[in-house]
Amino acid sequence: MTLKQLEYFLAVCKYENITKAAEKLHVSQPSITTSIKNLEDFLGVSLIDRSSKKITITEEGKLLKGRAKEILKLVDDAVEEVRDFGDRKKSIIRIGVPPMIGSFLFPGIFIEFSRKYPEIELKAVENGSLETKRLLEEGEIDAAFIILESYEETEVKPIVQTQVQFCVNIENKLACNDVISMDEIGREPVIMLKEGFYHNKVVRERYSQSKIEPNIIYYSNQLDTIKSFVKRNIGSAFLIREIVEQEDDIKAIPLKNPIEINIGLVWKRDRYVSAAARKFIEFLGE
Predict the structure, then answer these.
(1) Secondary structure (3-state) at 46
(2) Which single residue of 83, 124, 138, 144 could bond 96 by disulfide (Cβ 3.0 to 4.6 Å)?
């Protein structure tokens, strides 16, 4: 039994499809099929029920699935720990940073941390909150700045509390409002972050609660593009208030029923935390 066989088996368990597992692992479909067949021969049991078109995992397979996850995690942790011990000169921390959070929170943290620990490189991995969460769960990043919800199997360090506010051009008719309700926003043209961003989910939920169909005229994952639309008075947007504080052409209006969000750093509880990552976590607590 090899680690590669366990890796292939877990991929099939995850995607419930050999072709898709092969695509994700960048190997051929016969490689996956042969590997699992050899694993079954070694164990003397069937791991996959092949009697129907859809792959199902047998009871023996479910047992192996749990143990295989533990084995591969121990191997990954051992590799990280040995590398961490052997290379103290230059360490890299991979931090997931959704664009909206990164635009106002990460730059200051990056500058101060790099000044204090020049031997450690902070590498930002920019994606929406939902994709960032997936990368964290799969161990592709060490930690992430995200909007805090109920994240199981993670450690959490709260950083800042803020609000999502309705941002309009200063010439917009709604700019006279000091606060605004969803009914007042109504069918106002809006620019939204694309799906995959937690922000998109929260704003859509607020529209749904108010029984209003949003008038979304454009989607983007680029904050500069969204702000440009607002500056030109083409549409309005729901943004974290700190993002537009320095924008003279944009007014951020608090909602009557505020969208409060808590932003923090999260990391996997059951994974090895490198010395460099521990320094970063401690730095945020200073």
Answers:
(1) coil
(2) 144
Per-residue b or e along 193-204, where b marks 16 or more CB atoms closer than 10 Å to that residue's CB: beebbbbbbebe
Give domain 89-159+263-284's CATH superfamily. Periplasmic binding protein-like II (3.40.190.10)
Topology adopted by domain 162-260:
D-Maltodextrin-Binding Protein; domain 2 (3.40.190)
CB contact burial 115-128 (16+ within 10 A = b; e otherwise): eebeebebeebebb
Under 8 Å CB-to-CB from 209, ≥6 apart: which residues? 182
Going residue by residue through the chain, which has 286 residues, state the pLDDT in tens, using 9 for 90 and above.
888 888 888 888 888 888 888 888 888 888 888 988 888 888 888 888 877 777 888 888 888 888 888 888 788 777 766 766 655 555 888 999 988 888 888 889 999 999 999 988 899 998 887 788 888 887 889 899 988 875 555 788 889 899 999 999 999 999 999 999 999 999 999 999 888 788 888 999 999 999 999 999 999 988 899 999 999 999 999 999 999 998 999 999 999 999 998 888 988 877 778 888 888 999 988 7
Give counts: helices (H), strands (E), the chain.
11, 11
Q: How many CB atoms lie within 10 A of CB 232?
A: 10
Report how far residue 179's alpha carbon sits from residue 167's, in angstroms, rounded to the nearest whole number.
Answer: 11
Calculate the alpha carbon distances from 285 to 113, 121, 158, 281 in Å.
12, 19, 9, 7
